[in-house]
Amino acid sequence: MAETADGYDDSSTHSTGSIHETAHIEPLYEAFRCPLTRKVMHNPVTLETGQTFEREAIEKWLRECIVNGRPPTCPVTKKVLSSTELNPSIALRNTIEEWTQRNEAARLDVARKSLFVGSPEADALQALDYVIDICHMNRPNRNHVRKGELIPLIADMLKSSSLRVRLKALETLRILAEEDDDNKENIALGDTVRTIVKLLSHEHFQEREGAVSLLYELSKNESLCEKIGDVSGAILILVGMSSSKSVTVSIVERAEKTLENLERCEKNVRQMAENGRLLPFLRLLLQGSPDTRLSMAAYLGELVLSNDVKVFVAETAGSALVDLMRSGNKEAREAALKALNQISSYETSAKTLIEAGILPPLVKDLFMVGSNQLPMRLKEVSATILANLVACGANFESIPLDHNRQTLVSEDIVHNLLHLISNTGPAIECKLLQVLVGLTSSSATVLNIVAAIRSSGATISLIQFVEAPQREVRMAAIKLLKNISPHMGQDLADSFRAAGSQLSSLVSVMAENNGISDEQAAAAGLLADLPERDSVLTRRLLEENAFIIIISKVRGIRQGEIRGGRFVTQFLEGLVTILSRVTYMLDENRFIVFAQEHNLAALFTELLQTNGLDKVQATSAAALENLSQKSKYLTKIPDPPQPGFCGFCFSKPTQDTAGICKLHNGFCSIRETFCLLEGKAVEKLVALLDHTKEQVVEAALAALCTLLEDGVIIEEGVTVLCETEGTRQILEVLCENRTEVLRQRAVWAVERILRREDIAYEISGDQNVGTALVEAFRNGDYRTRQIAERALKHVDKLPNFSGIFTKMST
């Protein structure tokens, strides 16, 4: 830019209506100019010749004379000076200052007229440039700008539609704010800070850089830090900028420094914590005054933290919070408990807190009675924390709680938990039930809890929670009972039989029609684990219409009418297991009628094809075994032929024998007689013999063995198996020898199959089968060895006169 002799930027004189052209300034007197620089003097001094110069300029002239070996001379008169003394020209300096102030005031007045949002871009830029120039000339000029009330006008230019004007306004305000608290506060009046924050999000990086630089200057004034933080989104945007990889380094650095300044306000530190900037918050929590530490701990309990942040807080401040909980007053303990509740809700952070020693003081507070006990609302928080900790799956049996080395699964501790559950409100009941759910979810600790429940006689009281009106309490109780049911099945069955309407409540839970919930899956799993041959309980379930509800649910799931979700497998497994109870009650006619009316054999046959649901397949096969065993009693035997008029000589059938089951020698169907052959279940059962899970293979083989048992036409049963490749699969099961149960069943089935001479002849040359039978003959139990002996005789591996074993009816 060009400069005039008076030191002002003269670029504006090139545009129409420039400040220099329109300002009514006083003329520039030649006496105001330095003869050397031709600029208006700021510090005039006079030589002995009477000539006046700018001090800095004449001092430079005199130094050059000496350096060049010339005598000091006056630059104007060229006379050699006898003295280089410089006398300040105070009167002239004052006159120049007054003249300058009057001219600057006039020019500022002209600039004011161009500082409005609708001003032409060129005029606005010129006015802002002039303000920048006079600020650079000397610091007092910044006061003139403020006193001239130009700052609000400049701030308004931040709302201009012109990017260039906005950038220039940001620069001007930043210069005005530098090292001037009065100007900073003046800039922050009104909604200017909000406008600056808005500009932080604009697309143009220069605008973002200008905004963050101005905000940094303002943040140096401590009194403005809270005001900046109060602008919605300010700290969030700055936190994002400070960690962004998509902005310039200068923006990142300015944002970081601005945040560091804003940390002086505790309120801002909280906001930073909300937005993921934790270090300032944790510094106050760990190093602040007692009141500040308490305040930060209390606020931590209100924050919503991501899992990663929970881990970071637990590692950084976990021990301090545990100490505060252990040794603080009630107010401090409350704040610490709420904070610990927040960060204990994630598995990794919970384990960190356990390592920090949270369990002993937590359990102590929970069980404490007397004057020092926590109020119930804080005991609820303690119970919630304990539930969170237990859910992380730590080795609680190895973590001592006191000098007696008691642990969370010690009998006395569990008794205390059970006592609290029975003597507190629903909120604490729910959390403590969840604690027991967590402890019984581990195979390492479940037996300890089961023993404590038995020794305390708490089974009945726990079952009563199944009827709790609060869903969370009811769900926790059902989950707990489900976890202990494999170890306390008969105890629970006895309690359900003795109890009132708890069984009805479980059935009602399963009957709910809001998709498939965790609670429904747990209820089904609980009932499924109760002893399947408990006839009294099965009759109760029939009276409660439980089986009708279950059939509807199973079919709804299979047909896609009931929404699945992550609990569908557990729910379906439980439902099928409960339904299978009906097949253990077929000695009672009403259960046979029920199975016929609802075509249970067809349903279980269909369920054999639920690939991937091993338990459903195994349970369905076992149910079909039970049903198939009844087929020979339910089949309708045709009437014998009636003699004709010549007696028995010319008799003929009086009933059509077409459609008679070759296996049962009567009229069969899957619905009425549960016939596997008529229901086309044989092929599906044979397919399961190739299953990878032994449990499924055992159940399928047991069901197929009903085709070979006494009371059916065994030879026809063998034929059916041959036609479906079942014989080959059974022989493979025998040779694989996967479990003792499978070997026993396979040996039994193979002996029956080998009664057919053609098959026995064919198999006699199979070394693998012979070896498997010999192995069973040598190492099986008494009955298996006897059956294996008969099978070996069929294939001529043993002589028929062998008398090793006493004959035994089959």
Automatic annotation (TrEMBL):
Its EC number is 2.3.2.27. Pathway: Protein modification; protein ubiquitination. GO terms for molecular function: ubiquitin protein ligase activity. Coiled coil: none annotated. GO terms for biological process: protein ubiquitination. The keyword Transferase applies. HEAT repeats lie at residues 150-184. It catalyses: S-ubiquitinyl-[E2 ubiquitin-conjugating enzyme]-L-cysteine + [acceptor protein]-L-lysine = [E2 ubiquitin-conjugating enzyme]-L-cysteine + N(6)-ubiquitinyl-[acceptor protein]-L-lysine. It holds the Pfam family U-box. InterPro entries: ARM-like, ARM-type_fold, Armadillo, HEAT_type_2, RING-Ubox_PUB, U-box_domain_protein, Ubox_domain, Znf_RING/FYVE/PHD. Keywords: Transferase. Residues 27-106 form the U-box domain. This is RING-type E3 ubiquitin transferase. It comes from Rhynchospora tenuis. The lineage of its organism: Eukaryota, Viridiplantae, Streptophyta, Embryophyta, Tracheophyta.
